[in-house]
Amino acid sequence: MNSDLSIPQSLSQCQVKGVPYSGEHLLVRPATIEDAPALAMVIVQSFHRYSDVRQWFVPLLRLGIGEDLRYRLRSLPNGHHACFVACLSDSRGSGSMIVGTVEVTVKYLHSRAITPIKMPYISNLAVDPQYRRLGIARQLLNRCEVQVKRWNYSSIALHVLEHNDAAKALYGQCGYHTQYAERQLSSWIFNQPRRLFLQKNLSL
């Protein structure tokens, strides 16, 4: 991935409770293997925040996620797979921190078609809870769409849980449309929310 595809955005007008940054700038860039520990932390904070006994297993989970990320990042040059990070850098040059991540991969997706369809698929879109509602997720999605167009694909897809209203609103604002709801066995047996399959046409 070329660094010249990075997308800087100014966040100087944003105020975040409890966060010491002021005059930040957002940079969306390709991830490196060295980013893996920080990316694992963001993913765990986004998807695995527990208050019961499961919290004791979070460090082990974070370690496993980090190793999995390292493996995928080593494989990046071998196919249509990209991982991006969102970094906040202080305008005074005192440092930067990773606050978000996303991956996009061209893969075969199970759909209602007779045969699986191969298309770019977004996964692991995560933003540090302290930095949400600042447009970071939107910038990560946009960076994926730029990459997909460079791969010469005209559409992109993702899944979202049916009860995740905030994520559904974000995707809707970004032009993603629900194609169908998946009826998995676990949804019936364990009363879990269904996954919605969303798609965006990039040729419009």
Produce the secondary structure layout.
Layout: E1 7-10, E2 24-30, H1 36-47, H2 58-74, E3 81-90, E4 96-109, E5 117-127, H3 136-150, E6 155-161, H4 165-173, E7 177-182, H5 185-189, E8 195-201
Helix pairs in contact: 1-2
Helix-strand makeup class: alpha+beta
The whole-angstrom Rg is 17 Å
State the CATH topology.
Aminopeptidase
Helix count equals 5
Overall pLDDT metric: 82
Main sheet: strands, sense, barrel: 5 strands, antiparallel
Overall outline: globular
CATH architecture: 3-Layer(aba) Sandwich
Total domain modules:
1
How would you summarize this macromolecular structure in one to three sentences?
The protein is an alpha+beta fold. It is 28% helix and 32% strand. The chain has one domain (3-153): Gcn5-related N-acetyltransferase (GNAT) (Aminopeptidase).
Could you walk me through the main structural features you see in this protein, from its secondary elements to its overall organization?
By secondary structure, the chain is α+β, with helices and mostly antiparallel strands. It has one domain: Gcn5-related N-acetyltransferase (GNAT) (Aminopeptidase), CATH 3.40.630. The protein is 28% helix and 32% strand. It is built from five helices and eight strands, in the order ββααβββαβαβαβ. It has helices at residues 36-47, 58-74, 136-150, 165-173, 185-189, and strands at 7-10, 24-30, 81-90, 96-109, 117-127, 155-161, 177-182, 195-201. It has a five-stranded antiparallel beta sheet with strand order 1-2-3-4-5. Strands 6-8-7 form a three-stranded antiparallel beta sheet. α1 crosses α2. The longest helix is centred in the first third of the chain and has 17 residues, at 58-74. The radius of gyration is 17 Å and the shape is globular. It starts with 6 loop residues before the first strand and ends with a strand. Mean pLDDT is 82; it is low at 12-23.
